[in-house]
Amino acid sequence: MVVETSSSRNQRVKNVVAGKSNHENPGDLKLKPNPFEIDSLWMLWLLYLGFFLMVIFGNIREFYDKTLTKLGYRHNDMLPPKGYAPLFNLSEYFWLRWAFQRARDCFERPICSVPGGRFQVMERYSDNENASFKYTGKQIDCLNLSSYNYLGFGECSGPVIDMVAQSIKQYGTSTASSQLEAGSIDVIKQLEAQIATFVGKPAAMIFAMGYATNSTTIAALSGGKGTLIISDALNHYSLVCGCRDSGSVIRVFKHNDPDDLEKILRDSIVHGQPRTRRPWKKILIVCEGIYSMEGYICRLPEIIALKKKYKAYLYVDEAHSIGAIGPTGRGVCEHWGVDTNDVDLLMGTFTKSFGSVGGYIAGSEELIAYLRVTSYGSVYATAMSPPCAKQALEALRLIMGEDGTDQGRQRILRLRSNSNMFRKGMEDMGFIVCGDEDSPIVPVMMYSPSLLTAMSRMLLERGIALVIVGFPVTPLLLGRVRFCISANHTEQDLREALKIIGDIGDRLGCRFLEK
């Protein structure tokens, strides 16, 4: 199968904003292979064969291990004591032991420096099939293509860090209280005002954890019974968790597909609530600005048009898009040129583009006042650490040019240039690349778990660190490697990385589109 290229799709979405018709001539559509479809039956057969053999040999070893344990020749802490039920899911334990553990050296790699353009990875080895690791005492200098340090604020020197260091002397490291009680310190209030101004909303509130921002806000917002939540199929699990905790009815639309969203909206309004057929009290559409495992940018103008047409509310998670896209880094609304007033709630985190922790919700003053006393993440959780709030605040001020320099703008321009150059380089070499132009997330399809681990290990040997993503984070057959681009990378760094990745891709045979 083929899908439309990102440049062609983006032009169609921009036509929606401008009120123009879309592709009166079908020949205007530009197509490329669908990265989420495996057309080769031979590859499909090999993938299933690999998983089949893993399950067979894993069960044989599991039976052997349990037998030796029962006979007293081996001790296994993971098995329950006699007479006890298993404490955890045994099928998940099977996957963790016989699949994940074999690739565990590609995960949890210990870092001993700041996550800049380059960082230091502690060298380690295992003599018990990755059950545990030993350290050699050496460090590997790596090009960092794995961290969410989009604008390069995850650093240990510079004016922002100097002000963060001063804030530790003034505030310490913890508020030791929730914001609703004694944790509402001035630097957090300043950050709330600054982020509200930055995203173009009347008010905002801060959470100490990005995940909790979604998982506790949606539950507080929905109202439970009588509410319908329509969620993108590939939304982050924090959004999924918040939707499930809300007690609302949840329906899922195909990833980034406004046509499918409209079908669900129309059918839901026509049929009403299950059994009673009463009208829904409210409908909430939930999507992301940039999808972290796919790199695609939300088709926001089309979703906003549907939201207005069917009188629904819209919640947009900008964890990966705020600071990273748009001419001034203001996220997916600025990227598409839409009014932020058309989005009811804008969520974002400070962990990616701002080099800090925590998240925010921005909306109307009335809505934020309501969430302050109803969201569990605000009422019960300890407020954001003051130095972390200071880090996000000063990074924001630099991005907005309030320091009197254009450093923030230069970082945004560098990130976009680096992202597009790296993406084009990967596509030109014949890799199957996901995502849209301008997105700093560049996933590359590998499909096979053995290709994932081989790519990770071989790149580490050549001084490049990246993230591999497989089941259960992605569907079983859609494993991929993910490159995260930063403003801290130089063009020379990325061109050398492309050369190394291309060489390894040749050796592994994963340049599937190479002519």
Figure out the total of helices.
Answer: 16
Shape: globular
- Average predicted confidence as pLDDT: 90
How many strand segments? 15
Explain this structure to me?
The structure is a single chain. The protein is of the alpha/beta class. The protein is built from 16 helices and 15 strands. It has a seven-stranded mixed β-sheet, with helices on both faces. Helix 10 links the parallel strand 9 and strand 10.
Features:
single chain; 3-stranded mixed beta sheet; 15 strands; globular; about 525 residues; alpha/beta; 7-stranded mixed beta sheet
Quick structural overview:
The protein is an alpha/beta fold. The protein is built from 16 helices and 15 strands.
Would you spell out the secondary-structure blueprint of this structure?
Elements (H helix, E strand, L loop, with lengths): L1 E3 L1 H13 L12 E3 L7 H30 L19 H11 L17 E8 L8 E11 L14 H13 L14 H14 L3 E5 L2 H13 L4 E6 L4 H9 L3 E5 L4 H14 L10 E7 L11 H10 L3 E5 L14 H5 L8 E5 L9 E5 L1 H8 L3 H4 L6 H14 L7 H22 L12 E7 L1 H13 L2 E2 L1 E3 L9 E6 L6 H18 L7
Parallel strand pairs: 4-13, 6-7, 6-8, 8-9, 9-10
Antiparallel strand pairs: 1-2, 3-4, 5-11, 10-11, 12-15, 14-15
Helix pairs in contact: 4-13, 5-13, 6-7, 13-14, 14-16, 15-16
